[in-house]
Specification:
6-stranded antiparallel β-sheet, single chain, 8-stranded mixed β-sheet, 17 strands, alpha+beta, 10 helices, 28% strand, 349 residues, binds zinc ion
């Protein structure tokens, strides 16, 4: 297993990139992509674009990996000094109680814990239902609202989950925000493996995907590519209780090529191009169809007069929860497939 891939994922996973506060991840992406790029540009919405120039003026390819992650935001501070919060991106309320979090105030980052009414004093019907996020609060140990304000907390501060990267199995790792640091790492690996390219590649770390594919919209307009691939994660269906019908992808079985999700029917030429590239290079892959949710590719697809787009995804367990699990080999194979595809562009476009 490629050591740098593991190290890069650890660094990026431990960094905080709650949507709207991607700066920590962006700085790392700049640092990690720089050795393999001819130019790095940060656009007005703060997407980061690493450009690797090719000899031919066209086709130009855009890779997109979103840098943001789901998290929380301080909404109100109670007079007792507890922080009530809203959600940034899709998070299941059931996983929130008792999570360790980090509040990123303007001055500094400090720890907190998501508290709730303990079961001992809940009524029977309360115990049966899920506590909604607006019934929960973050305890930062403040004695009052004034105390919390004096610590530096403010309404609007982003809140991330406090989870550190851990190796589980030989190639299986656990950490925060693999959605979508996995795609970010696959994009860095792609630039690294690509060495020279005949075609210009713009590798874009996008912002605010989790709140509506926003950064991808302006980045795609600015880059104006001829085709695009989003590198992201997909729901792994290999844990107890998931039907094959719901999702069939498994970790360690290769990157997933999506035929359709709720935002995109992959452009037929792009799908053929990716499938042939995987087959010819004997890269393992999986197919998925009809999954709920979508990626940056859905937004890029509808940019300007239309940009043929597709996804290469890494099957990941427990996405949109504080901690996720994936197999590093899938990231490596996603990068290999992206490189194989770029090298074959002229046969298809
Ligand atoms: Zn994602």
């Amino acid at each position: 297993m490629c050591l740098s891939l593991n190290e890069n994922l650890e660094k990026l996973s431990n960094a905080c990139g709650v949507a709207g506060r991607e700066n920590e991840v962006r700085e790392l992406m700049i640092q990690l992509m720089k050795p393999y790029a001819d130019e790095i540009v940060v656009d007005k919405l703060e997407n980061v674009i690493a450009i690797k120039k090719g000899k031919s003026p066209a086709p130009k390819i855009m890779l997109a990996a979103h840098m943001d992650e789901v998290g929380l935001m301080v909404k109100t501070i109670t007079k007792e000094g507890f922080l009530q919060f809203t959600k940034t991106g899709g998070i299941d309320d059931r996983i929130l109680p008792a999570q360790k979090v980090t509040i990123f105030s303007r001055k500094r980052a400090f720890p907190g814990i998501i508290g709730s009414k303990p079961p001992h004093i809940q009524k029977e019907d309360e115990r049966k239902k899920v506590m909604a996020f607006d019934e929960l609060f973050i305890d930062i140990g403040a004695e009052s609202k004034e105390d919390a304000l004096a610590l530096g907390v403010a309404v609007g501060d982003p809140v991330g989950f406090d989870i550190k990267y851990v190796q589980l199995g030989r190639d299986v790792v656990m950490g925060k925000a693999f959605d979508n640091r996995a795609g970010c790492v696959a994009m860095i690996e792609t630039l690294k493996m690509l060495e020279k390219t005949d075609y210009t590649v713009c590798a874009v770390g996008t912002v605010q995907e989790e709140v509506g594919l926003r950064g991808a919209a302006t980045a795609a307009f600015g880059v104006d590519p001829d085709l695009a691939i989003a590198l992201d994660v997909t729901v792994a269906g290999d844990t107890p209780g998931i039907r094959e019908f719901d999702t069939s992808t498994k970790i360690g079985k290769g990157p997933a090529l999506s035929i359709s999700d709720s935002g995109l029917i992959t452009h037929p030429k792009v799908l053929r191009w990716l499938l042939d590239s995987a087959e010819e290079e004997k890269i393992p892959y999986q197919i998925e169809a009809g999954l709920m949710g979508s990626t940056d590719a859905a937004r890029i697809y509808l940019t300007r007069q239309g940009i043929p787009s597709g996804n290469i995804s890494i099957a990941t367990r427990y996405i949109h929860s504080p901690v996720s699990v994936l197999c590093l080999k899938d990231i490596e194979n996603a990068a290999k497939l992206t490189v194989a595809a770029i090298q074959r562009i002229s046969k298809y476009f």
